[in-house]
Write a structure and sequence with these properties.
single chain; five-stranded antiparallel beta sheet; about 60% strand
Length: about 80
């Protein structure tokens, strides 16, 4: 399950700034889903708009990081991921 909110703004021609907030859960089956497993993150990124779609780099920061986890992750995307 995933819930996502995204704000996108063109900053200069062919470049977009994206700000996002995600809430989601990964489980092995639908029956295991509950609010205890939900995790959230915020992030930002920059996308270059090409004739075949956007290419971008986005960085997400975990809001509820657990001990031993990284603080966030860099993502490379082709097309709109959300």
């Amino acid at each position: 399950m995933r819930i996502c909110s995204v704000l996108m703004q063109t900053v200069i021609p062919k470049f977009e700034l994206a700000l996002f907030y995600d809430v989601g859960s990964l489980t092995d089956n639908f029956g295991e889903m509950d609010s205890e497993n939900l995790r959230s993150s915020i992030g930002a990124g920059l996308r270059y708009i090409t004739p075949i779609g956007p290419i971008g780099f986005l960085y997400g920061t975990k809001l509820d990081r657990k001990q031993g986890e990284s603080s966030g992750r860099l993502h490379f995307s082709i097309g709109y991921t959300f």
